[in-house]
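Exam prep: given the inputs below (a chain plus phosphoric acid mono(formamide)ester), describe the expected output before reading on.
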Amino acid sequence: MAHTVDHSKHLIELASIDRERIVGLLKLARSYDDGAGMPRLDTALRSKLSGKNVCNLFFEDSTRTRVSFSLAAGNLGATVTNLTGAGSSVAKGESLIDTAVTVEAAGGHALIVRSGAPGAAQSIASHVGVPVINAGDGTHEHPTQSLLDVYALATALGGGREESFDLSGLTVGIVGDIASSRVARSDIAAMTKLGARVVCVGPVQMAPKSLGVLGCEVSSDLDGVIGELDAVQMLRIQFERHGSGGKKPSSPPGVGSVREYRSLYALTESRAERMKSGAVVMHPGPMNRGLEIDGAVSDGPRSLIRKQVSAGTLVRMAVLAELLGAD
Ligand code: CP
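Solution:
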């Protein structure tokens, strides 16, 4: 039987949580940072979640999120169980909700849920009594990705932002397939709550004007805004959400060809050179090098991409500690 979801006991979306909780989670992640962006693994930290069972329910592919949730739980002393669609009874037709209820009954104390269906994490949260963390649900949200994005950005910019997580005065561009992107939705929610101006950029089919209701600006002119940005988050074209069964069509939506997309929206070396001094480059991954971003940029001096991944373990430790009552 479904019940009302108390969002304070779960992490389903950033759109419905306040700035104070976002900052609290980021500060908790900071307290776990060894100063080099990696977790400080002292004895007290290692036993914080001892006796807790964290269960990854990943019904859609993942590398970064699944690995870092597993490492985060292990760093805090929890045990980790991994379940995927293939190889579980989901493949025999069991529903996601029956699967989640079963895992809770077996002793799971927190469920990390990734699914291609928007609303899957909230739906599971309405059927179980343990915390549910949304690890990405279709095109809806990916809240821990955005927490790690903000953590990496604030840390790189410094000047006190690495402690306050106040993004006032910054302009962040999110470029590419915004319409398909749960990362973009979570980033817009978090970054605007923390005071940033967010500009979403892409062809109109990928960055429709209607995105403005989320509190961002919308543009189809990357060259017109590139020089204003303090940070740019480049997005992969999510061909798997375009109804082509994941096969790459000859042209991305809204442009005549991949070549045209690159000429207008890729972060090429020459375009990156037009960014402000000190501006940084981000990408949530996985990347399509040579399509939305050049390898020389993703591996270059402006890039925070590896730091984003490291921050993922820290913020996921913070989310697990908060929801399992350890801090
Ligand atoms: N950014 C992100 O969610 O990556 P994975 O799909 O590899 O987890």
